[in-house]
Write a structure and sequence with these properties.
26% strand
């Protein structure tokens, strides 16, 4: 590959729209295995039988909008303005109210407001608040990002991150949920292969997943981007892995 081709790929990744939570721009550039449990389908089943639901940190509402039926009261929260706009566009026509929320406690709802609280890949998890807004016997159903997701790529740019590898461990989250007042009835885990086929995908991912390499800019990491471009060009896709866990829990009472 020539330097010109490298520059073209960098420009493509740097100019791509990273608003919302739709990763279709990566089609043909990167791929990720999906968890075996089918979260979107199972979420739809839970929504069908709920009377009042809230989806916390809904992103652009893309996953929630796949549901075919919503309960009479259906709410979603989101903090990032571009995602709020996208979620509103997708969900308001379906009767789901989108609430701007800073992802910090307290949730802007009364006690015992919902019989179903859901979240897919929340950046922060405030278990006490989840329990507070759940009715006794209500359900929390979420798919979370697990420990050391994408760390092969993250450590390529940042070096070893051994102290961070324990973060988001499902055992720790189950313990925190239990302490807050939930009975965890099911936990499933998965390790999933990610293949990255060009450097444009890397730039896109690091612009979108801003917590992977905090403060990432093309200019700051240009040398490492060129190194990684050379590795991919000479050796094929860069392989990293994500981890996911599914938590199904019930509020006591």
């Amino acid at each position: 590959m020539t330097t010109e081709r490298f520059d073209e790929l960098i420009a493509a990744g740097a100019s791509a729209d990273v608003s919302g939570w739709d990763f279709s721009w990566l089609d043909g550039r990167a791929s990720e295995e999906r968890p075996p449990w089918g979260y979107a389908r199972r979420l739809g089943e839970r929504l069908r039988s709920a009377s009042a639901s809230v989806d916390i940190q809904t992103g652009g509402g893309e996953v929630l909008s796949e549901a075919t039926v919503f309960p009479p009261t259906a709410v979603a929260t989101e903090s990032w303005p571009p995602n709020i706009a996208r979620a509103t566009e997708l969900l308001h026509p379906r009767g789901v109210v989108v609430v701007a929320d800073p992802d910090e406690p307290p949730l802007p709802f009364s006690d015992d407001a919902f019989d179903l609280v859901t979240s897919r890949h929340p950046a922060t998890i405030w278990w006490d608040e989840i329990v507070r807004v759940l009715r006794p016997g209500g359900t929390y159903f979420g798919q979370h990002v697990g420990p050391a997701s994408g760390f092969e790529l993250i450590e390529f740019f940042l070096g070893p991150q051994s102290a961070a590898r324990r973060r988001r461990h499902p055992d720790d989250e189950v313990a925190a949920a239990t302490a807050a007042g939930l009975d965890v009835v099911d936990v499933q885990t998965a390790t999933l292969r990610i293949e990255i086929h060009d450097i444009a995908a890397v730039v896109y991912l690091l612009r979108k997943l801003i917590w992977w390499v905090p403060g990432f800019t093309v200019e700051k990491y240009l040398d490492r981007l060129l190194d990684l471009h050379t590795l991919i060009t000479d050796g094929g896709p860069f392989v990293t892995h994500s981890t996911r866990h599914l938590i199904d829990a019930r509020a006591r009472g």
